[in-house]
Amino acid sequence: MALPPAVGAAAFAVQAHVHAGGSLRRPASPPAAALRLGPLFWPWEKVKVGPLSVSPMGFGTWAWGNQLLWGYQESMDSELQECFNLALRNGINLFDTADSYGTGKLNGQSERLLGKFIREYEGPIKSPDDVVIATKFAAYPWRLTSGQFVSACKSSLERLQLDRLGIGQLHWSTANYAPLQERALWDGLVEMYDKGLVRAVGVSNYGPKQLLKIHSYLASKGVPLSSAQVQFSLLSMGDEQMELKAVCDSLGIRLIAYSPLGLGMLTGKYDSSNLPNGPRSVLFRQILPGLESLLTCLRSIAEKKGKTMSQVAINWCICKGAIPIPGVKTVRHVEENLGALGWRLSPAEISELESTAMAAPKKMIQNVFQTA
Ligand SMILES: NC(=O)c1ccc[n+]([C@@H]2O[C@H](COP(=O)([O-])OP(=O)(O)OC[C@H]3O[C@@H](n4cnc5c(N)ncnc54)[C@H](OP(=O)(O)O)[C@@H]3O)[C@@H](O)[C@H]2O)c1
């Protein structure tokens, strides 16, 4: 059977590398033998997001330009470009970004880098489905009219050097603190869709109640709501997330799972004596001590399946019907996370992970902008 065009030899190599003894070391040269006889996913395993067809996993680019939380330096750009190229070569066509990504004078850097990487990509990019950029427009307090929101969209398009976006997402709802502003933002989404600036419209950090409201408002204007992005992982799988998933399913909205690795806590590489630099350490110090059983469970399932903990955590999101968008900063992250595709956890493994996760004393804190 012919391979999907975008899924090349690297897909096989990645699987082989990641499988090799569960080793996290980067091989000196590409592995020769493949253990998995097939691509990471077949064309028919692509996922519909409104009119778009995307890979079962995308990649997140919050770190690309963020010095404060993620330690970004411009010297990382060539590796980030390699990350993008490797992902695309392996059929990953969904990249999540936001107009607020990038700290200080680097604001917009994530979109700018994506724009540059798309331009400089050496392989074929023939159709708009080949690279789907999902950006998010911040609900800044000074964005008070629909026109200002459309201008924000145009600025993103400029940074991305694109005529049209894949998914234009409202980054958060203002319902909790500025309900009057929200209608203007919704109208902004309608306008950008009607003007053809975005192929699909999505929201982020919306809870089930607010999601129902925006869905019906947009529907009344003839605009389909295609995606809802929310924190969703083994550390963030409470009633709110499950209710949101059910609402999404009933309305045909695709759930995009952000922070699927719990900001790195589910990778297994951190513990109380080995914390990341920067503000994440404060959060990790609070949460990690309560995660022993969950991390042990993840590790044991990973070992049994010849996978890594990150791959199991990402695969769990896929098994729940979400599109995970793990954040990546290095080629190593991309290689390993690609290995989350092409297999499935069994129902017994899923329920073991979930019951252990539910018993964990601490969960991830929810985004301050998350609504009911
Ligand atoms: N809509 C929203 O409000 C919102 C909020 C948050 C995120 N997001 C989106 O979701 C994306 C993903 O979420 P996230 O970046 O917050 O968290 P995440 O995906 O849970 O964690 C990403 C971090 O984990 C580490 N990592 C990734 N893969 C790894 C691997 N295979 N092995 C070891 N470490 C690995 C890296 O950091 P270290 O190496 O430094 O540990 C990476 O930056 C973001 O990039 C962004 O696009 C959206």
UniProtKB/TrEMBL annotation:
It comes from Eleusine coracana subsp. coracana. Transmembrane segments: none annotated. SUPFAM superfamilies: NAD(P)-linked oxidoreductase. It comes from the Eukaryota. Keywords: NADP, Oxidoreductase. PANTHER family: AFLATOXIN B1 ALDEHYDE REDUCTASE, PYRIDOXAL REDUCTASE, CHLOROPLASTIC. Residues 56-355 form the NADP-dependent oxidoreductase domain. One of its GO terms (cellular component) is cytoplasm. This is NADP-dependent oxidoreductase domain-containing protein. InterPro entries: AKR, Aldo-Keto_reductase, Aldo/ket_reductase_CS, NAD(P)_OxRdtase_dom_sf, NADP_OxRdtase_dom. GO terms for molecular function: oxidoreductase activity.
